[in-house]
Amino acid sequence: MVTYLNEASLESLIVEQLVGLDGTPAWHEGDPKTFDAAFGLDRGELTAFLEATQPETAELLDIGSGGPAAQKFLARLEGEITKRGIVDVLRRGVDHLQHHVDLYYPAPSHGNARAAEQHAANRLQITRQVHYSVHSPGNSIDLVAFLNGLPIITFELKNLITGQSVEDAIAQYKAHRDPSELLFRPGRAIVHLAVDDRSVRFCTELKGRASWFLPFDLGHDDGAGNPPNPRGVATDYLWRRVLAPQSLTDIIEHYAHVVSVENKRTRKRSRLPVFPRYHQLDVVRALLADVRAHGAGGRYLVQHSAGSGKSNSIAWLTHQLIGVEHNGTAAFDTIIVVTDRVILDRQIHDTIKGFTQIASTVVHADSSADLRTAIEAGKKIIVTTAQKFPYIVAGLGTRHRERTYGIVVDEAHSSQGGSVSAALAASLSAHGVAAAREDEDAEDLLVRLMAAKKLLPNASYFAFTATPKNKTLETFGVPYVVDGVTKRRPFHSYTMKQAIQEGFILDVLANYVAVDAYYKLVKVVEDDPEFDARRANKKLRAFVEGQREAIRQKAEVMADHFHEQVWAKKKIGGKARAMIVTSSIDRAIAYYEELSAYLKENRRPYQAIVAFSDIERDGAKITEVQYNGFPSAEIPDRIQDDPYRILVVADKFQTGYDEPLLHTMYVDKVLSGVRAVQTLSRLNRAHPQKNDVCVLDFAGDAAAIRTAFEPYYRTTLLAEETDPNRLHDLAALIMDSAIVVSDIIDDFVALYLAEARRDQLDPLLDACAAEYIEREIDDQIRFKSAAKSFVRAYGFLSAILPYSNVAWEKLAIFLGFLIPKLPTPPEVDFAAGIIESIDLDSFRVEKTQAMSIALADEDAEVQPVPGAGAVGHRDPALERLSEIVKSFNALFGNIDWQDAERIRHRITEEVPAKVAEDPTYQTAAANNDKANAKIAMVDALGRVMLSLVRDETQLFKEYSDNADFKKWLEDAVFRATYKKSA
After folding, report:
1. What whole-number distance in Å separates Cα of residue 964 and Cα of residue 888?
2. Is 468 left (phi over 0), alpha (psi -120 to 50) or beta?
3. What local confidence, expressed as pLDDT, does residue 870 receive?
4. Cα 756 to Cα 74, 419, 750, distances in angstroms
5. Which of 22, 106, 258, 649 is most buried by its number of CB atoms within 10 A?
6. The CA-based dihedral angle spanning residues 26, 31, 34, 37, taken in that order and rounded to the nearest 10 degrees
7. In this structure, are residues 612 and 649 in contact, taking their beta carbons and an 8 Å threshold?
8. Which is nearest to 862 in space by CA: 716, 659, 658?
9. In Å, what is the CA distance from 694 to each residue of 511, 580, 678?
């Protein structure tokens, strides 16, 4: 064994390199003999600090001698640390008798020589093998970091070369570091670190076996871990950078904190120690550094995975942006935090207020009036929702528009809609949005209106999201050029991949179960009318799944799964909760009623809660309170306490809801795109006892979910910037229609800017609407689609283009008022009456085998905002009712199979796989058109089915004799195999 590479060698390396760092104040190595285990501090260091900085107080307290005065002060100091925590004691000192004792001097502001001198007097000390126990004097810990004699960090070190890892260090903390020992009690140290030569983990509060250690690694290849370090140990960033004196001072003053959390129902408060994760520390520091270098006017996109702590990152950034300077002056006068999530609106406000030294600097704008007052008064930090901005623009003055702003946008993918972002910019812009001034005509006002829509040159935008859309990337992303094409990327990313691998969040796709529903419908009319097949199938599915029988069966499947797989298995230490996601309020209420009845009938020891927005039905108001028996505001707290275990929702709690106890989700709503990612990500919040999660999807499929998640698994990039010429194309299509003409647009805009009355404006709009109504349906669809596309695209591009276009602005204003007056083109419902023509004969559901949905391990590119496209009227595909019913039943298993589960596996798994492997079909698919490929596929399918004749007699008979089933199977297998073979 090479002894010089043992655990002690890593300890020596850390101490040597830490002490050798340049910085003021510098680290020095301490003497473990001066540690006082009875009071949990280094008495020698504390004495030296007080004698150097507060000599008169030090003499009166007589700490060095250990006499009665010293004992009283040390007891007082221990009590204050226990009550307030080490961070607060360092920041605010301790009052003792007639003395105020400072225990730390903060970093000085620029030019403050006295503060700089005091800060330099702070003493940073790293001590090896500290014997921390009074009762077991032989117990020691590898390293302890002290600030002015007070312990702030403990270390357990392990060495991979000698066969031990960071996991062994964590095990040592959990099993052998008694949390009742003074050094390890809550609030005594800022953080406890488990370190080896490859990885770092941290814990803010030791709780024995329940201690929760989280990664503090840099990340590697968009995933977990640390990259190879050509100049040293892979984890030396910890002591070389993070624990460098200036960095550690910054963490103590701006990041480490104890948050007091109140349960609104019980009024009980709990204390939660907070320490930044590496990606949080990294992004905030990177943003602040860029502002120091460039001042106001920047745009920053932060792509951090859901569940990665964005609220704290936003809070840390916000309260530091107020103090950041550029060229010696404050970069921003006011910071505005904008969120579109009502739950987080208040949450972010409370978090920022907790981190900010002067709480009065934070204002929460509950109403538009509050927001207007706060902006006019020049408040330092304002937290509000994006929806309030459009209502205050007209009433705002102009004085505040000369200020500089930092605008922090939470969930930027949805907060920056065209009207909201324009109103936000206009409300703070020096150009303003108001009626014409005395010295300007309509054209001047139009130019001012366009200028006001631009992203503000007197503001910086800090946009946070886990799921950036193309508009978000183009608005806030960092541009870069590849092969002459301008693309955009986030300023900083912490990927879903890394968050999952590090254990900050759980993989919600690791245990995905698709639940298949099988229906049998019967025709109840004598004749055989024709219906639009596509629309009819959609109506039939909605009809079937809305039946109480179907809801009851699915509710039973959900309840039984929860009881057997979640409750009985004591998931999350027996505290697991579930969510049922429904497609409508009526469906949510039905689920709640059926589920509650089933739980009661089976004497289950838990209950459900239903969550939806108030509605009116038959003139009566329907509220959650009528079903739950308590106010809506209590739902987040109630679901945490027994007997409540299952939350049934309709749109509510699908975004912005952080509940670590949520383990299982039952989805009976078609989810796609960002909405699918946001909804399923409610499950991903980590908990010390949470090892897995589960999704049962009654409405979707694995392919659609995979497609939704893949763009956000790693860093999301914009493939190319939007081509502004698309606005020219849309405008040309609109003007070529002759439904609107330039003269009418010019007249309308002039009157509108002059604040003309409606009786002057409406005739111009109505004339165009009348012309529109006279056109063919295809022309109406084409015009209205182009008009909507133009308004949406211009609303986005007008904020980011470096130039303005008066014609576009006029057209956007005019179309914005015209579109609501254009009736939707009449479309005959060729599926009307189909529900009255059928009845439900049978219904059943079956769970498929659980699967893990794997995502592509590569950066994803999203395409820019789409432009003009041909849109026309869809001719219905008419089919006889009998054929529609047959097709519908065939899709959902109307044949009375002897072993339905085995047959289903044959049809959906084995048969397509064997067909896809057929060499003749593979050749045809690769070299012929689709029609000829299908001919080859049908032949291949026949050969596969013939090979099953002995094992699956019933299946072969249905294939041979049942023409409908044969056609359905041919189409299904071709859809499943063609792209794979081609």
Report:
1. 11
2. beta
3. 46
4. 76, 22, 9
5. 649
6. 100
7. yes
8. 716
9. 5, 12, 15
pTM for this predicted structure: 0.80
Q: Which CATH class is domain 507-704?
A: alpha beta
Q: Which two tokens stand for residue 107?
A: 């970093």
Q: Which two tokens stand for residue 581?
A: 């996601």
Q: What stretches in the chain show pLDDT beneath 70?
A: 1-7, 21-25, 262-266, 340-360, 368, 386-401, 412-453, 517-526, 528-534, 536-537, 539-540, 826-849, 866-898, 900-901, 950, 964, 979-982
pLDDT at residue 347 in the model = 57
Write the CA distances from 30 to 118, 149, 572, integer angstroms: 21, 10, 42
Contact 708, 496 (CB under 8 A): no
Q: Which two tokens stand for residue 721?
A: 């910037």
**Token output for 658:** 């952080």
Interacting residues of 351 by C-beta distance below 8 A, sequence separation 6+:
259, 311, 312, 314, 315
What backbone torsions phi and psi does residue 300 show, to the nearest 5 degrees? -135, 130
Neighbours of 467 (CB within 10 A): 25
Residue keyed to tokens 């025709």 = 523
* Fold topology of 276-494: Rossmann fold (3.40.50)
- In this structure, are residues 202 and 216 in contact, taking their beta carbons and an 8 Å threshold? yes
The per-residue pLDDT for 393 is: 45
CA distance 110 to 108: 6
Type of residue at 503: G
Nearest to 33 by CA among 23, 43, 47: 43
Are 348 and 407 in contact by the 8 Å Cβ rule? The answer is: no
User: What long-range pairs does 951-954 form, CB within 8 A, spacing at least 24?
Assistant: 952/903, 952/906, 954/897, 954/898, 954/903
Residue 201 in tokens: 């983990």
Instruction: Look up residue 349 and give its amino acid.
Output: H
- Pick from 863, 872, 752: nearest CA to 818: 752
Residue 785 and residue 814: Cα distance in Å, rounded?
15
954 and 946 in contact (C-beta within 8 Å)?
Answer: no
Cα–Cα distance for residue pair 162/124, rounded to 1 Å: 30
Structure-block tokens of residue 322? 């107020």
Residue 348 has a pLDDT of 61
Measured in degrees and rounded to the nearest 5, phi and psi for residue 415 equal -80, -15
Instruction: Record the tokens describing residue 500, joined without a space.
Output: 């999952």
Q: How far apart are the C-alpha atoms of 56 and 59, rounded to whole Å?
A: 5
What is the C-alpha separation between 497 and 968, in angstroms, rounded? 39
Contacts of 910 (CB under 8 A, 6+ apart): none
218 and 237 Cβ atoms separated by less than 8 Å: yes
Give the residue carrying structure tokens 């930027």: 412
Phi first, then psi, for residue 344 (nearest 5°) are -80, -20
Query: Over the stretch 671-705, which tens digit does the pLDDT of each residue have?
Result: 888 889 989 999 999 998 999 999 998 887 888 88
End-to-end Cα spacing for the chain: 58
Q: Tens digit of pLDDT for each residue in 190-227?
A: 999 999 999 999 999 999 999 999 999 999 998 999 99
Angle between the N-to-C axes of helices 963-981 and 919-927, in degrees from 0 to 180, rounded to the nearest 10? 70
- Round to whole Å and give the CA distance between 296 and 705: 40
Tokens of 556: 């039973």
Q: Please give the pLDDT value at position 433.
A: 47
Q: How far apart are CA 389 and CA 950, in angstroms?
A: 71
Same fold, 276-494 and 507-704: yes
Q: Where are the domains of the chain?
A: 3-257, 276-494, 507-704, 725-821, 897-982
Which stretches does DSSP call E strand in 106-248? Answer: 124-131, 140-147, 150-157, 191-195, 200-203, 214-215
Q: Which helix (H) or strand (E) holds 782?
A: helix 777-800
Contacts of 179 (CB under 8 A, 6+ apart): 185, 186, 206, 207, 208, 211
Reading the block at residue 214, the tokens are 């989280």
